[in-house]
Write a structure and sequence with these properties.
It is built from ten helices and no strands. By secondary structure, it is mostly helical.
Length: about 210
């Protein structure tokens, strides 16, 4: 009951701030865009850290906390270099996979989900793949890690308890956000897609962080 109340109080504080930095990044000059963008992911990092501190744990020893740190770093690096950002996000996903495996042993269903998701990812991007050139190998590697993250997370609510549902939902939201980003990279600039992918991205990070409460 106390945990639920603490999360409710934190949501009342954090969600309006997260909504504000989300909105600000679309109205300020482009040269200042990184500040609110990274601020949004920082709020999600704080959400995870607070949950761990209130539980008497050290955030620095938690894989989810570090996974979110790498995602926050990816927010910065991806604006400078796509590959650097992808490496940072990929590292974050690997840490989240390792955390998921700590919660429950690897289930055979995860392998089925992973293969199906990877095939689906290739089919979704079949028009963009010929345009990728040297980015094809990094795309396949990142897609394998991203879908592997969801494959590990998707079975947790069934094998380790319903409390892992926010984590699984967060990883799914992350995947959809990245798919929109991938489509956007090889298409025309689209403000609506940018707003949607950032909404899903912040939703993903917040759900992942909230799963620690």
């Amino acid at each position: 009951m106390e945990v639920t109340m603490n999360l409710l109080i934190w949501n009342i504080i954090a969600l309006p701030v997260l909504g504000a930095v989300y909105a600000v990044q679309f109205i300020i000059p482009r040269k200042f865009y990184l500040i609110p963008k990274c601020a949004g992911s920082y709020i999600c990092v704080c959400t995870a850290a607070l949950a761990l501190v209130l539980e008497g744990k050290n955030p620095l020893t938690n894989l989810v906390f570090w996974g979110l740190i790498f995602c926050m770093a990816g927010d910065f690096f991806i604006e400078l270099n796509l590959i650097a950002g992808g490496i940072s996000f990929g590292a974050g996903h690997i840490l989240l996979i390792l955390w998921a495996l700590e919660q429950a042993p690897l289930h055979p269903a995860s392998l089925v989900v992973w293969i199906a998701e990877l095939i689906l990812m290739v089919l979704i991007f079949k028009k963009e793949i010929p345009l990728m050139g040297k980015l094809f190998i990094p795309f396949i590697i990142y897609a394998a890690v991203l879908t592997g993250d969801f494959a590990a997370a998707a079975v947790l609510p069934f094998t380790a308890g319903i409390r892992f549902l926010p984590f699984a939902a967060g990883i799914l939201s992350f995947q959809i956000s990245d798919m929109i980003l991938g489509k956007k990279q090889f298409g025309k600039p689209d403000t609506f897609k940018q707003k949607l992918l950032m909404f899903l991205y912040y939703l993903a990070l917040y759900l992942i962080a909230a799963s620690l409460w």
